[in-house]
Please model this.
Amino acid sequence: MAEQVKKIVLAYSGGLDTSVILPWLKEKYNCEVIAFAAELGQGDELKAIRKKALQSGASECVVRDLREEFVNDFLWPMLKSGAVYERKYLLGTSIARPLIAKEQVRVAHEYGADAVAHGATGKGNDQVRFELTYMALDPTLKIIAPWKDPSFELTSREAAIEYAKARKIPIEQSVKKIYSRDRNFWHISHEGAELESTWNEPQDRMLVMSVPPEKAPNRPAYVEIDFEQGVPVGLNGKKLSGVEILSRLNELGGKHAIGTVDLIENRLVGMKSRGVYETPGGTILYEAHNALEMICLDRDTLHYKQEVALRYAELVYYGQWYSTLRQALDSFINVTQQKVTGTARVKLYKGNCRVVGVKSPFSLYMADLASFKMGAEYNPQDANGFIRLFGLPMKVAGAVERQTAGRKRAAKKASRRK
Model:
């Protein structure tokens, strides 16, 4: 017998999985189901989603435009952290899930629901990201995950299609899809099809936000990005909102084949998976921000922050956005960003994204000091004492090693005489 539930809010994308999960929830729990969709910059994917949700049995479909919150409260903190998962992944899907789940909990409160549901499978990372957020923000809500329910029999594509057809649920667009995709303002991910074999090269047909390098313009493009305390605030000297900055950089970066990576990653649940990620605007911003930090942060702060970035990336990937540790790390990161203000000039050419100029009123780079020419600001004789003290532990270790080796040789000779 199904658990007693009065009202459910389902994280709804309009894809095949959530299209069949919605009526399945109604049938199993015999209760009202509200569909919730978040506008995070996924283009026309939300077109007519309300009509589809109602046709599928939802009592209501709530669509919230979260683009500004996504950029300002999620993407920019992550950008400031420098978080990259396994050296390549800029965490586009990972960073979106806590925001979707957060708003889903809010909708549950607004509509008096006592349960929340998602369509993430039992093999993936998203189940963790959704459920950790639910637990952090309202542990009293019941969590329903159909893919982990033994009675859920729609775990194959064929079964889901048959179920939808029997109930006249519109799924034509979902059935036509070759790849499993997730898109938002930051990126688009691709899984499935030829990517299921690690030996296959990704096909150009897969790309949505970008073009392959071979089809990029033969002339490079330059863009100047202005930052204030680590946050992008303008392009080419013009102040713009975060949404406008990311929109323009996505378009420009996509045109020049920037930010497409092919990654075999380690999922949180223990298996490896392969995905291709397009992150044109995000890649440009990461390069620009890194370059500005290189001239604005002292060595010890920069090196320690690089260590923090690895842990921050894990927290985002693992769905622990609302953890105390992430909030504490943000406090450290915000201190490091107080003087990360200035401009980076980035060159884009056939898939290559390279910072070719950077300046800041807080730059620690001093041309006279860095020059090969010796000047009054640097006395090379000071290096003698520094090197002697810096190398003292190695010198002592070397002396001890020589003494030990000498005793061993002497003992060996003595044993031969006997």
Remarks:
- Residues 392-417 form the longest helix (26 residues).
- The chain has two domains: 7-84+91-179, 187-297+340-369.
- The mean pLDDT is 94.
